[in-house]
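Appendix B: a complete holo record

For completeness, this appendix reproduces one full record from the ligand-bound portion of the collection. The bound molecule is coenzyme A. The inputs are the chain sequence and the ligand SMILES; the output is the full three-dimensional arrangement of the complex, encoded as structure tokens. No fields have been trimmed.
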Amino acid sequence: MHVSAETDVGDRRHSAGRAEDMDTIELLPPAATFRESYCSLISEVIAAGEALIPFVLEFEHDDFGAFLRRLEDCARGIALPRGFVAHSTYWLVCERTTVVGVSNIRHSLTDSLRRDGGNIGYGIRPSARRRGFGTTILQKSLSRAAQLGLTSVLVTCAKENIGSAKAIVRNGGVLESEDYLPARGEIVQRYWIRNDSRAEVQQGIQP
Ligand SMILES: CC(C)(COP(=O)(O)OP(=O)(O)OC[C@H]1O[C@@H](n2cnc3c(N)ncnc32)[C@H](O)[C@@H]1OP(=O)(O)O)[C@@H](O)C(=O)NCCC(=O)NCCS
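The structure of the chain with coenzyme A bound, as generated:
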């Protein structure tokens, strides 16, 4: 299926598209090729009045080259704010043109991330939701996490976030705990996903 660079996944040509119907759907490192589509994703989230999730969506990107270098630095653990661990960002790209989602993988856990945030955060552009992309982005992020050597992965979500909780459970998430976080004003759930079989495949070892 060919999709022009200007095509938004939310337009009519894609309105019925589901993740499994796509010819190609890849979790790729950020690249200048996808600038226009990435910017439209941000515009969509802002227009919907939603929080920018994962947090790297907040990064200033008018100077796109500088933005990409910043993300690379974050993955290498360079110039991180105090308390931050190295984190890698990937974009879920459909048909090699449309950025439908963004994932951010934290390479290790702090006390704060253990409470809220976990190893992987992700978001799907509003017009592409409920078509399997949330489940897909987490699945592909787990493979990327395995490349980083993460054999077990913590994913957290608000208890009310049914879509995220379903995506986590479909990817093998097991609920560890949940509690009310006053700073968020909601109950946060913590799920662990065993990732050792993916990690073994990455190392060429059959599970
Ligand atoms: C959470 C999020 C990533 C889910 O993405 P998605 O593309 O809709 O996920 P999927 O299509 O894979 O949906 C998984 C399941 O959840 C269901 N679902 C998704 N959103 C839902 C909602 N708002 N209410 C109820 N069920 C929902 C889907 O229908 C599907 O279940 P089904 O196959 O039984 O119908 C997306 O809503 C999002 O980006 N939200 C904002 C950012 C965010 O909350 N990120 C997660 C932080 S933990």
